[in-house]
Amino acid sequence: MRPKGSAAGLEARRRRAAACFQAGESVRTVAERFGVDRSSAKRWGRAWREGGEDGLAAKPHPGGKRKLSDEQIDELVDLIVDGPREAGFPTDLWTCAWVVELIRDRFGVEYHAGHVARVLRELGFTPQKPRTVAREQDPEAVEHWRKVEWARIEKKPADAAPASSSSTKRASCSSR
């Protein structure tokens, strides 16, 4: 398992251990000082002896090979921007499952829906939640209700008694 810390921090630790080896400390002493297994300290010492300071440098971890080329990514972005209806889907909202299907059909590449979400985020797309508005809704009537009716409901008479802080009524607590 990879130890905690950045690549630069772990490299700095190996370089400090090399300085200890250079000062003549044993593998056991170095392992105890840095809180690592003796096999790690031994590996650091060998890397330092064989490669010097360069032998202790952090190695890049490039990850797996991308499944889509740059051209395919550009085409995918264009397809997503055009919308799902243009791509043959029944609604105007993309889902990760539909993007997986689009990629499979268009490029012959399989992706997991969870990974597609990460790919989309890296491409600058974010999840969107549409505002739901009834088709029958009359915007003028809604605006009138907000400005007139809601304002009337919200106003309280100046002489109104303060509301009770109790959340129950006395009668509801009796055991009879």
Considering the chains and any ligands shown, give keywords for the structure.
elongated; about 180 residues; mainly alpha
Indicate the proportion of strand residues.
under 5%
Estimated helix fraction: 40-55%
* Strand segment count: 0
By helix and strand content, what is the structural category? mainly alpha
Distance between the termini: 65 Å
Mean of all residue-level pLDDT scores = 85
Number of helices: 7
Silhouette: elongated
- H and E order: HHHHHHH
Question: Which regions have little confidence, pLDDT < 50, spanning 5+ residues?
Answer: none
**Rg over alpha carbons:** 33 Å
For the sheet with most strands, the description reads:
none
Explain what this protein looks like in three dimensions.
With 176 residues, the protein is mostly helical. The chain contains seven helices and no strands. α5 (96-107) crosses α6. The longest helix is centred in the first third of the chain and has 16 residues, at 7-22. The N and C termini lie far apart (65 Å).
Give a short summary of the structure.
The chain is 51% helix and 0% strand. The chain has 176 residues and is mostly helical.
Write the layout of secondary structure elements.
Layout: H1 7-22, H2 27-34, H3 38-51, H4 70-82, H5 96-107, H6 113-122, H7 139-154
